[in-house]
Amino acid sequence: MNEYIQGFLLQMSLILALGAQNIFVLEMGLRHKYQYMVAAICSVCDIFLVLIGALGVSNLISSVVELKIVVGTTGVLFLVYYGLLKIKEFLFFSKVKKKKISNTLSRKKVALMALSFTLLNPHVYIDTFFLIGGYAGKFDSQHKKILFGLGAGSFSCLWFFFLAGFASKFSIFLTKERVAKWVSLFTGLTLAYLAYKLGLDSYHEILIYLSMS
Asked: How far is C-alpha 128 from the chain's CA centre?
């Protein structure tokens, strides 16, 4: 169980930072829009990616530079688009419009957005493949690596369902017009910053790729 605990603690140190995925889970919790489905999707994706990283398959995937560039660029565009939507909500905010925006989100659309926030973020792969996968390399058996991966995945599940439940419980306060307006601005600016950071990473990947060509 020592490997399980190490995985649990390492994932806790990585996932607590405020990222695009966490923000989306919080937002769906505030809207009471399939928040537990979103938490489940994020959890399953994290467990899958963590186990891939822990078992060492990441070495093959990470060697494909073109794939990293495509995922990075797509992720930047997605974050910019969603960030601009949130800033637009702040600038043209009203209770009626907020209600309409909330009601247009179908189960399928929310599920696709949850997958996008998870799989189009290269930082998710950095955490699961390189950091967790690199740490798992110290273990001398597949059994220990799997235990380590399950420990990391367990914290992901607890964290995402906690975020969904927390946001739902305090949604009455957080969705008040004045508060919700500033939440939209904070969300939009955070996503814009994450897009900027991700864009820099993708730009460096492109430069490396061009220098190798």
From this structure: 11
Alpha helices in 120-213 (DSSP H): 122-125, 133-136, 142-169, 171-174, 177-212
Q: Please work out, in degrees rounded to the nearest 5, the angle formed at the alpha carbon of residue 27 by the alpha carbons of 23 and 28.
A: 120
Tokens standing for residue 38: 């979103």
Structure tokens at 82: 């969603």
Question: How do residues 17-41 score in pLDDT, each as one tens digit?
Answer: 667 788 889 889 888 889 999 999 9
Helix axes 177-212 and 65-91, enclosed angle (nearest 10): 160
Contact between 164 and 43 (Cβ < 8 Å): no
Residue of 37, 191, 63 whose CA lies nearest to 130? 63
Please say whether the beta carbons of 23 and 147 come within 8 A: no
What residue has token string 């398959």?
A: 57
User: Measuring CA to CA, how many Å separate 52 from each of 43, 71, 146, 149, 166?
Assistant: 14, 18, 9, 9, 30
Residue ranges covered by each domain of the chain = 2-10+20-212
Q: CA geometry: angle at 170 spanning 169 and 174, to 5°?
A: 145
- Taking only the tens place, the pLDDT of each residue in 59-86 is 555 566 776 777 678 778 877 887 888 7
Residue 20 parent element (H or E): helix 20-31
Tokens linked to 97: 């419009």
Q: Taking the complete model, does pTM exceed 0.90, yes or no?
A: no
